[in-house]
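Morning, I've got a small favour to ask if you have a moment. Here's the protein in full, and shout if anything looks odd to you:
***
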Amino acid sequence: MTGDDWLDAAKTDARRRQLPALDPMLEALARATRALRAAEWNLDAASRPATDTDETDDAPGT
C-alpha cells in the first residue's frame, strides 16, 4: 500500500464515519510522512547495520 493509497482509504473511512473534519488532518499527516521519508537523515538511518555494537553513541550524556 502506498502513502496515497493509505490517504485515500483513510479519507474514505473518515467520510463513512461522518467525520469530515479529519480530512485536513489526514492530509497534513500524509504531507509530514512524505517529508520524513524523503529526509536525508532517513537515508543514513537506513544504512546503519541492524546489529550495531557501537555503544558509544547510545550512552546517555553526562
Observations:
- Residues 3-39 form one domain.
